Amino acid sequence: MFNFICGEVVAKEEGILIVKSGEVGFELCVSDYTAMDCNVGDYVKIYAYLQVKEDGLVLYGFSTLEEKKIFLQLITVGGIGCKMACSVLSNVSVNELAMAIFNGDAKRLACVKGIGKKTAERIVLELKEKIVPPTNAKMPAEKEKPAEKTFSQDAIDAISVLVSLGIAKNDAEARVCRVIEQGYGKAEDLINFALKNQR
Which residue, 19, 85, 102, 129, is most buried by CB atoms nearer than 10 A? Predict the structure, then answer.
């Protein structure tokens, strides 16, 4: 029913924003992160979700589309309603939540206020294949490959000769590097001085 609401923030309480759009004031339940993005007097665009309950209607608001999307995914998980989903998003950023789910890190989720161990495991199980990590989020750390050394053709030729003489490749490269640092560059010089630089 509501996709977004544009208007002025006229009041702000814990977990609540009042946004005036035209002659209508909308009361929206929001996460702490959305509340921090909105100050009284600001003109804002709030993405909205209308919860229809037996005892009334509740309007939820989100300062970013990403927050709304992950909220909608959370409430598809058994046992998680709108209020709990909003509470979760008050205690962990969208990026952190998305990465925890994407990485299957149920322990991280279990530390979030409002989520127990079983609920955390259920969230991971049901949403892991649906979550796309934010483009600006860091993926799980991988061991960085050491930068490969770049050598001139003369240096490559010198290293090949040294290796053919029975010197280990790493040792040959190290010797050639030391000779290059001394200002030599021709293959012949590199070989001669490298052979003299015995460890």
Answer: 19
